[in-house]
Structures are given as structure tokens and as C-alpha cells.
Amino acid sequence: MFIKIYRWIKNLIIRIMDNDISGMAAQLAYFFLLSLFPLLIFIVTLLPFTPLTQADVFNVLKDIAPKETLNMVQKTLNEIMKNRNGSLLSIGIIGTLWSASNGMNALMRSLNRAYDVEEDRPFIVSRGLAIVFTIAMIFVFLLALLLPVFGKQLGEYVFTNLGVPNMFISVWEILRWVLSFVILFIVFLAIYYFAPSLKLKCTTAIPGAIFASIGWIIVSLGFSFYVANFGNYSSTYGSIGGIIVLMLWFYLSGFIIIIGGEINSMSNKKDDEECKS
């Protein structure tokens, strides 16, 4: 048993080095940065059509994202929204979605490399798929915001009628993390299943989705704790400290996501070998 685990980990490390995962994660971090503000602009523009506010968006992110990064992003987004003319939904939606899909398009290329396949879908199809993924992620993100808001209201109502309103507070602290994990898992599962340019079994996408969901939460919380308590980037880099932290966070996130793709690729090859035998 331990020998199999050792060999599996050894093969994963070899794939990480051979496929230059660190370099691919750096590329993802760059494209994530390019797509961040177009994505946030589009989400904030949709907020008036929901019961949510811009503060709700950043309240959800504050538990995971480093504080320096969150403050920088929020300040920049406020400046962008103040200087915008006209309605984004009626004028700039296509351009914004195209820019926001850069990160997803880069992720699709990274997953193709994890599976050792070339992108054989036409450019319009692959780019259109990236845009569809981006739109889907926007609505999943909005759903992730709505669930805690209405879930908390519903929970407080139920527990108050049961006569134990204080119990809900401790229960909700657990439920909100469970909800976050489930939503992340569904998002990663969909990405790992549809993004690569080959047909996959849904089951082969599950291991990587579980790893990426757990790994991303742990790495994000750990990195946020490190930045808050040990890494004083503002003193070292001045005003660009927030950007440095943001890029490092994106780099770690990209690293985790690509490793999830490598795990799925190993699982898919194992299933193919079992089918042949």
C-alpha cells in the first residue's frame, strides 16, 4: 500500500517537473490578473439586479483573500466604476467578457498540456467555451453570495422557532465552509471535465476537483495568515505591495489547479490501461 502511494507521489512529482508546472502557474497568474478587473466590473454591474451589494462580494472574499490584496482591488475597482461612462451591460459586455475569459482560456491550455493533448477545437469554439465558462463562473459566484445571505436568514428563522437561536451561530460557521467547498468542487469538476480538448469520464475529474477544492482553501487561508502576520509586503515594496501579494496568490492558486489537472490525467491514464487489459 505504502509502495503504491510512494510511486504515485513520485510519478506526480515527475509530471510536475516535466510539464513545467511552475512556469505554467506563472502564466496563469498573469492571465488571471489581466482578467480580474473585467470580471469584477461585470459582476458589480450585475449587482443592481440582485439583492446583493458590492460590500457583500468583498465580505465573502475577506476570509480567503489576503487583506492587502483585497484593499487594493476594492480601491481600484471603486475608481474604475466612478470613471465609467454609460451602461456596461448595453455597450461593453462583449469586450469585457472577452477580456475576462483570458484567464479561463489560459487554464484550458494548461489542462490540455496536463493531458498531453493539442487543442484541436476551432478557435471560435475554444474561445466561445472559455467565455461560457466565464459566464458560468460569474453566476456560480453570485449564487455563492446569495446562498449565505438567504441561508442565514432561513436558518435564523428556523432555529428561532425551535427556541434555540444561539445554536444556529455555531452551526452556520460550519455550514458556510461546507457550502463553500461544495460550490468550489462543482466549479472545478465542471472545468476539469469540459475544459480539456478530449473526451473524459466524469469520474476521472473527481480526484482533481477534490484536491483543488481542499488545496485552494488551505493554501488561500494559509497564505492570507502568512501575509497578515509575517509578510509585510507594503513596507518592502511600497504601494505595489498589494499587486505583489495578488500575483503570489494567483500563482499559488494556478499551481494548485494545474496539479489537480495532472492528478486527473494520471487517473484517466490508469482507467485507459485497465480498459485495455
TrEMBL record:
Pfam families: Virul_fac_BrkB
Annotated compartments: Cell membrane
Top-level taxon of origin: Bacteria
Keyword annotations of the record: Cell membrane, Membrane, Transmembrane, Transmembrane helix
Membrane topology: Multi-pass membrane protein
Chain ranges passing through the membrane: 21-49, 88-108, 129-150, 174-194, 206-228, 240-260
InterPro entries from the UniProt entry: Virul_fac_BrkB
NCBIfam families, per database record: yihY_not_rbn (TIGR00765)
Name by which UniProt lists this protein: YihY/virulence factor BrkB family protein
The species this protein was found in: Lederbergia graminis
